[in-house]
Amino acid sequence: xxxxxxxxxxxxxxxxxxxxxxxxxxxxxxxxxxxxxxxxxxxxxxxxxxxxxxxxxxxxxxxxxxxxxxxxxxxxxxxxxxxxxxxxxxxxxxxxxxxxxxxxxxxxxxxxxxxxxxxxxxxxxxxxxxxxxxxxxxxxxxxxxxxxxxxxxxxxxxxxxxxxxxxxxxxxxxxxxxxxxxxxxxxxxxxxxxxxxxxxxxxxxxxxxxxxxxxxxxxxxxxxxxxxxxxxxxxxxxxxxxxxxxxxxxxxxxxxxxxxxxxxxxxxxxxxxxxxxxxxxxxxxxxxxxxxxxxxxxxxxxxxxxxxxxxxxxxxxxxxxxxxxxxxxxxxxxxxxxxxxxxxxxxxxxxxxxxxxxxxxxxxxxxxxxxxxxxxxxxxxxxxxxxxxxxxxxxxxxxxxxxxxxxxxxxxxxxxxxxxxxxxxxxxxxxxxxxxxxxxxxxxxxxxxxxxxxxxxxxxxxxxxxxxxxxxxxxxxxxxxx
Length: 482
Prior knowledge:
Blueprint: E1 11-13, E2 16-18, E3 22-27, E4 34-39, H1 43-60, H2 67-83, H3 85-95, H4 100-119, E5 128-130, E6 136-144, E7 147-151, H5 157-170, E8 174-178, H6 185-196, E9 204-206, H7 211-219, E10 226-230, H8 233-246, E11 251-254, E12 260-263, H9 269-278, E13 293-297, H10 298-313, H11 333-348, E14 352-355, E15 370-373, H12 380-383, E16 390-396, H13 399-406, E17 411-412, E18 414-418, H14 422-431, E19 436-439, E20 455-456, E21 459-460, H15 465-470, E22 473-481
Parallel strand pairs: 7-8, 7-10, 8-9, 10-11, 12-13, 12-18, 13-16, 15-16, 18-19
Antiparallel strand pairs: 1-2, 3-4, 5-6, 6-22, 11-21, 14-15, 17-20
């Protein structure tokens, strides 16, 4: 399908586009066609962006602006994003796995909501007066960090940018942000819209590039006061190592997941099957909270498996620029081959392939929904974050066994639980090792007040919620003798 919207060019620094040699090709996952190329920001370009961010903070007085003025500017920005929904949705769909039809009514509108949500904290959250002796006056003051370095992934490019930018700006910071080199353009476009809405030039600076060069330059830059990253656990570990080597600074890391969906025999079977599918097949399973380990009580396992196979078989692979949404492509041929490699290794090690296990026979990078059973705890389909439309299916006969299977040695991002027994739901929820638990549903809603973040190697700190706003401000204890 044709694409007739001009794409942003180069980096966006200090309110203007900065060109560079085109070093990284961007392709369509729906067709494999080349779309264009972006520059690779080295340390000197990142340094320019950090300097622009610092200058914008100082010259505009953004951090010290009347809080309600920050709120108004951010609301105007959100209004512009909504007004440009058609353009942004097409720009998101052309190079990502996000269907245009979903992005227009979902991703774009949710991003605008997130910006408004965080904006409202600016004039409602403040320091805390604390009890001391009558001879003293004590309080906890808070202030923005200064310049936030943000790095976002390719799976939900716009949403990931919005929740990082919204929290950081509402809290009074400037941002240097690097979108994924595979999905670079919507982040740059919404940064331009922020200036049109009245936010100071240079408050948001977008640098194009990859992780090893550009990402490392951001996380190791002495002028970056805090790092916020969403991506794989392996990349998060590399960021922690780089920060430790180049100078200690705080960080928020939302990392990988291998989340269980635990199903008890007293569940509503059809409703549960629909939820399980929504937990693994949207965006072709390319989301960190994907419920990729399905754990089912023995007595209903066969019936539930049959319902899942029926639903898996019904998906239709669809170009992301189509007028109606369908099953998403894998972001790249390289990622598709990685997914298939893990599936084939799982089968080699004794797993049974119930469905899928191969690419669709069509152009683009589309992988069939895949369900794997007869897996052990050491099978790669259980241990590895596959990041594709692949789920394992395991059986249990007791609560204790379900909890044992649900616990993962590496990850603890999310978990799902399906039961009509309220006591069991509360009992199991308390024992599940996860930063978020959904009961009789699976997946995030537009309740932005709920923070997201993982346990174990699934991350540090929180995105979204009140916690994300406060995570972009640092505290200072003050005690005054009277």
